[in-house]
Amino acid sequence: MSEADNRLIVPLDFSSRAEAENLVETLGDAVSFYKIGYQLAYGGDGLDLGRELIAAGKQVFFDLKLLDISNTVAKVLKPLPKPEHPCSPFTPILRPWRGRFWPPRAAT
Length: 108
Prior knowledge:
alpha/beta; globular; 4 helices; two-stranded antiparallel sheet
């Protein structure tokens, strides 16, 4: 098999590490570059997975911007603990943005 083309970046857009690892294993040496976003990074142990991929010689792009597609932001916020107090460190900060609040409230 020829060397992987590093212009191809495969998104690991999963909520669990097991799902991401399954895809990485399936693709094997055919892929050398992966993207890990918020959903996996913070909800599925993606930061450690990214470190392990880098140690294995893969390239990893951590896509951790907050101003993103509202559906993505809702998925990120959903697993966070519900705040017991309005000043909880897990209370998302809602700011007016383009006539609506951002990030959007996670679906329940």
